[in-house]
Amino acid sequence: MSKIKIKKLSVSYGNHQVLNEVSLDIPERQIIAVIGPSGCGKTTLLKSMNRLLDLNEDVAVSGDIAIDGENIYRPDIDVNALRKRVGFLPQRPYPLPMSIFDNVAFGPKIHGLDVSSLSVVSNKEREGKGNKGTQRLVEHYLRLAGLWEEVKDRLNAPAAKLSIGQQQRLALARVLSIEPEIILADEPTSALDPISAKLVETQFKILKENYTIIFVTHILRQARRLADYIIFLYMGDLIEHGPAVRFFGEPCDEKTKAYISGEIS
Ligand SMILES: Nc1ncnc2c1ncn2[C@@H]1O[C@H](COP(=O)(O)OP(=O)(O)OP(=O)(O)O)[C@@H](O)[C@H]1O
Ligand SMILES: [Mg+2]
Q1: Distance between CA atoms of 26 and 83, rounded to whole angstroms?
Q2: Computed from CA positions of residues 165, 43, 248, 25, in that sequence, does the dihedral angle turn out positive or negative?
Q3: Which atom of ligand 1 is nearest to the CA of 19?
Q4: Domains of the chain by residue range
Q5: How far is the CA of 157 from the centre of ligand 1 (A)?
Q6: How many A from CA of 219 to the centre of ligand 2?
Q7: Nearest protein Cα to ligand 1, atom 9
Q8: What is the C-alpha separation between 8 and 25, in angstroms, rounded?
């Protein structure tokens, strides 16, 4: 089933058009990779899906994006509610200047979420109320992000003391803590060492059971090992998209073949 339907999406910054009538359906509960050469519009496409593009002055967006059938560019849409449903994991982690614990507790507090609002939770976790509830929430999201075992004995330490790889998983825990359905991730492992990158990839594979994960990558090998579905952009055009096995096994377009073989990069 498709989670997101994009119809004739065009985006310009000033008079520079960077996405040209992109139309595609994005499947639910899979890992989707957006690939293509630098400057082809990957980040722009990603940010169009939770209206982060709106933060740019001088941006013009036309076309439609529907999530679960609801057009997110409707004038009366609640953008904060949208960004809660569609979380964004940036390339580099920016932990809040507070403890590991408070970094994770922050989002649910702002959004008024507690243990009872968890979608993915055991009955044991549901029992907590008040402080105990917050502790359960924090543990829950740190586990989902694959960080719990490494930080459970120092939850009150400043988040800035964590390694970059751990901070990126903390950032993932923070995204998860607002209970999104879709996770957008812009080159989420490009600032990480290979072992930390692998840990993030492992969590994505676990998380796709319950979330739709759309990530941008420059690394074809990463797209091959991680993605179920590929979106290939080239100079603002959607060249080809489809299941990863088909995309890599039987590419249709000449540009796709050239990109996969390394002739263009
Ligand atoms: N805020 C902006 N204002 C003006 N031009 C922009 C802005 N953001 C991006 N662009 C331009 O739009 C085009 C697409 O940018 P985008 O960041 O989406 O590409 P990308 O595929 O993510 O590239 P990279 O792989 O280098 O991250 C580029 O030519 C870029 O210079
Ligand atoms: Mg980019």
Answers
A1: 18
A2: positive
A3: 14
A4: 2-260
A5: 37
A6: 12
A7: 44
A8: 11
Closest C-alpha to ligand 1, atom 7: 13
Mutate to test the pocket of ligand 1, among 40, 53, 232, 234 (most ligand atoms within 8 A of CB): 40
Quote the longest CA-to-CA distance of the chain: 58
Q: Is 43 in the pocket of ligand 1 (CB under 6 A)?
A: yes
pLDDT of res. 221:
95
How many whole angstroms from 108 Cα to the centroid of ligand 1? 32
Q: What is the pLDDT, as a whole number, of residue 25?
A: 98
CB atoms within 10 A of CB 114: 17
| Domain 2-260 grouped into CATH 3.40.50.300 | yes
Low-confidence stretches of the chain (pLDDT < 70) are 117-131
Q: What pLDDT shows up at residue 116?
A: 72
Torsion of the alpha carbons at 205, 28, 105 and 91, rounded to the nearest 10: 60
Look at residue 111 in the predicted model and tell me its pLDDT: 84
Tens of pLDDT, residues 72-101: 999 999 999 999 999 999 999 999 999 999
- CA-nearest of 64, 76, 57 to 5 is 64
